[in-house]
Write a structure and sequence with these properties.
It is built from seven helices and four strands, in the order E-H-E-H-E-H-E-H-H-H-H. With 228 residues, the protein is α/β, with parallel strands linked by helices. It starts with 11 loop residues before the first strand and ends in a 6-residue tail after the last helix.
């Protein structure tokens, strides 16, 4: 995150409450180094919060209470949650306005479907991480997500690879684009942010938004076996 010196007094747009790094010292609020630190270290004015992390061993009220105070003081605008259950999201929304959730979610990993449905109901953005299955979905469904976990997982990869490759050929797209298009069709709350290493790859990812999957296409993808 880089700040513009000319806007150094503006509040931080968003801070995501997530699992802190292993070994990071956390105080009562669960934030690394115990809480509020000068945002000037990031180039943002004279006050704020650096690196908040949601610690599952610390009461959520303590952690979100601190962020809520900073929000009311105008030091941050939005609060997000990282890797939470539906029950934790419900609890958090009773304590503070939650702008977004970032959980692992993709075509073959839908373990957070209940969280997604709750986000839809509450008007909360859901940012799926590993939207392309850590590269497995760009390889036609074959890759590190399910591979090496036994015959059943390999069969699931093969099924996904066949369906993705067939649909990709039909739409003149890549398998990764089909996987991203599925996310965009699946829920209005989903805002995938796939990583990219080049402008060409960025353009490829953006082009997925222009793929119109049919009801038959979606039915095939919805029926793929995966983590649920």
């Amino acid at each position: 995150m880089t700040a513009d010196p000319e806007t150094a007094d503006t509040p931080v747009d968003a801070l995501t409450v997530g699992t802190p790094p292993v070994g990071a010292p956390a105080g009562r609020t669960g934030f690394p180094l115990g809480g509020e630190l000068p945002v000037r270290r990031l180039g943002f004015g004279t006050g704020g919060l650096v690196g908040p992390g949601y610690d599952h061993g610390v009461p959520m009220a303590d952690q979100l209470g601190t962020l809520r105070e900073l929000q009311q003081e105008g030091k941050i605008r939005h609060i997000g949650l990282d890797s939470v259950s539906a029950a934790e999201l419900t609890q958090a929304q009773e304590l503070a306005p939650i702008a977004s959730v970032q959980n692992r979610y993709n075509l073959l990993d839908r373990a957070s479907e209940d969280v997604l449905k709750l986000c839809e109901q509450r008007g909360t953005a859901f940012l799926p991480w590993f939207p392309l299955g850590n590269g497995s979905l760009t390889a036609g469904g074959h890759g590190p997500q399910n591979g090496g976990e036994g015959g059943g997982a390999k069969d699931a990869d093969a099924d996904a690879g066949t369906v993705l490759s067939t649909l990709a050929a039909r739409h003149g797209a890549t398998t990764g684009q089909i996987a991203l298009a599925w996310l965009l069709h699946h829920s209005p709350a989903l805002l995938p942010t796939p990583g990219t290493g080049s402008p060409a790859h960025l353009d490829e990812n953006l082009a997925a938004a222009g793929i119109a999957l049919s009801a038959a296409d979606l039915s095939q993808l919805d029926q793929l076996p995966g983590t649920a």
